[in-house]
Amino acid sequence: MKPARVADAVTEFEIKFQVDPQSRAAVEGAVARGSSRSERLQARYYDTADGTLAAQRIVLRIRKEGRRWVQTAKAPGGNALERHEHNVEITTERASETPLPQLDRHAGTPVGELIARAIQSSGHTPADIALVPLYGTDIRRTTREMRTGDARVELAFDRGEVRAAERAHPICELEIELKSGSPQSVLELARRWRMRYPLWLDTVSKAQRGERLAKGIVHAEAVKAVAPALGKKATGPQVFRAVLEACLAQILPNAAEVAAGSPDPEHVHQLRIGIRRLRTALREMADFAPGIDPAWEPALVDAFRALGQQRDLEQLQANVQPHIEAAGGPQVQWPPRETPVPVPADVVRQPSFQLTLIGLVAASLPEPPPSDEAAAPVEAADPAREPLRARLKKLHRQVARDGKKFESLAPDAQHRVRKRLKRLRYLGEFVASMFGQEDADRYLKALKPAQDALGTHNDDAVAIDTYRNAADHDGRAWFAVGWLTARQPQSARECREALSEVAKARRFWKT
Questions:
Q1: Rounded to whole angstroms, how far apart are CA atoms 30 and 157?
Q2: Most Cβ neighbours (<10 Å): which of 29, 151, 328, 438?
Q3: 273 and 191 in a common domain
Q4: Do β-strands 167-180 and 4-6 pair in parallel, antiparallel, or remain unpaired?
Q5: Number of helices followed by number of strands (H, E) in the chain
Q6: Confidence (pLDDT) at 379
């Protein structure tokens, strides 16, 4: 076999959409305009039998592109849309020959270093690594390069399938990849395409799809929140972008699974948590990000509420009604709904929500470097600790104040206390690393009993309204109204007592 020709290592930034099957021809036709080309791409993906590379989210493939063979390795980059990539063109002696992968082809590159670390952490050595084929793809790709803003991008429409043994998954995707220029221009182009066609963001790569097929699963586990790591001297814009990126790291993959029709309620639950955390960041850190689009909030609220309708119904049927029946209450015949519960996939695919996600991704990106003609360097921004300390102090003071009189508050005011407590918790989690993780964890742990008590109290209040509305259809619902209403005073006392402990908790931002 002739030696491989090594291409430059690159950092890939791309945004990918799933395409509504009914719009496939229109999207493909739009990509095929002008100087486009079409080719068949057949790839085989490799890993060790125990998944050494996949454990570190590294992808290794051999792909036939027209008449040439290319070996590619990819690994995670700085954010959800960025990846390290290294391509090696392989020349074979005969056209019919299929090359085998060799990890050392990526030596000396960022991806090669990540591969070496993966091998070391797995307990393997380079000498005993044995690569096996796991799954493959067969794609017909239509591409076109174009300029947009200050960037040169490639549009790629892919249709075909991913296959692992006897299992297959159809592919119908649009990718917009940055070739040169700023990622912001890619996202602006993505926004225009989303406004024109029914597309929705997808973070599941073909490799991830293949791994799932090989394991016999369709959807990944729901992604939970992870707080950002922040230094004590981080500036406001740095804090905001890091928090926004952390929120999107939870929202985007869960939204992709929901849009793909996942039946797992945990995907919806974690997506709603991500949205709630994001709304806290937008509210409490607005001074750090003057470019916040006011259209984001209503789109996020609409999606949050629509996704919550199914959760509220399940909460009532799975938790509240069994307690009522255990207390001797009757079953209730629920009236038909005037409007059906929104389908979660439809909610996530809505244009307003998708455009908001694109805007948020753009806001999470670092500021572009100044041009050569830029003015004198700007003085470093002040650290964000003091304004954040003030926000934490205010939220804590409000929760402690209202906690003392919780029993006398109207239901709407009690619900505001619960929402403030959530914002206090999320803001604390966001900035814990700036003030001391151990002290912050201790404080946040002290919030949990109050969160639980207020959550139960709120669920009962929502259930009272639901049963009261059902009573016109089935009078037996009045038993539940009476039973739940009788529980409210004791529940409110438990909330007040739990909130009094929050008031006494040692505030980590004061140390």
A1: 9
A2: 151
A3: no
A4: unpaired
A5: 14, 10
A6: 45
How many domains does the chain fold into? 2
Question: Which residues, at least 6 apart from 502, have a Cβ–Cβ distance to it below 8 Å?
Answer: 396, 399, 400, 403, 421, 446, 447, 450
The alpha-helical segments, DSSP class H, found in 6-83 are: 24-31
8 Å CB contact between 470 and 334: yes
pLDDT of residue 235: 95
Residue 100 main-chain phi, psi, to 5 deg: -105, 150
H-run or E-run covering 187: helix 183-196
Write down the pTM of the prediction: 0.91
- Cα–Cα dist 83/12, whole Å: 5
Same domain, 48 and 132: yes
Q: What is the CA radius of gyration of the chain?
A: 27
22 and 153 in one domain?
A: yes
For 394, half-sphere exposure in the C-beta direction (CA atoms, 13 angstrom radius) is 9
- Specify the pLDDT at position 162: 97
DSSP for 160-177, written as a single string: EEEEETTEEEEEEEEEEE
Residue indicated by tokens 């500036």:
235
Low-confidence residues in the chain, pLDDT < 70: 1-10, 368-381, 511
User: What's 436's domain CATH number?
Assistant: 1.40.20.10
Map 382-401 to HEC letters. CECHHHHHHHHHHHHHHHHH
User: How many CB atoms lie under 10 A from the CB of residue 428?
Assistant: 23
Identify the sign of the CA torsion 33, 35, 39, 41. negative
Distances (CA, A) of 112 to 57, 119, 155, 259: 13, 11, 28, 34
Q: Strands, DSSP E only, in 149-233?
A: 151-164, 167-180, 199-201
CA pair distance 78, 76, nearest whole angstrom: 7
Domain that holds residue 214: 4-218
DSSP letters along 430-496, please? HHHHHH-HHHHHHHHHHHHHHHHHHHHHHHHHHHHHHHHHHTTT-TTHHHHHHHHHHHHHHHHHHHH
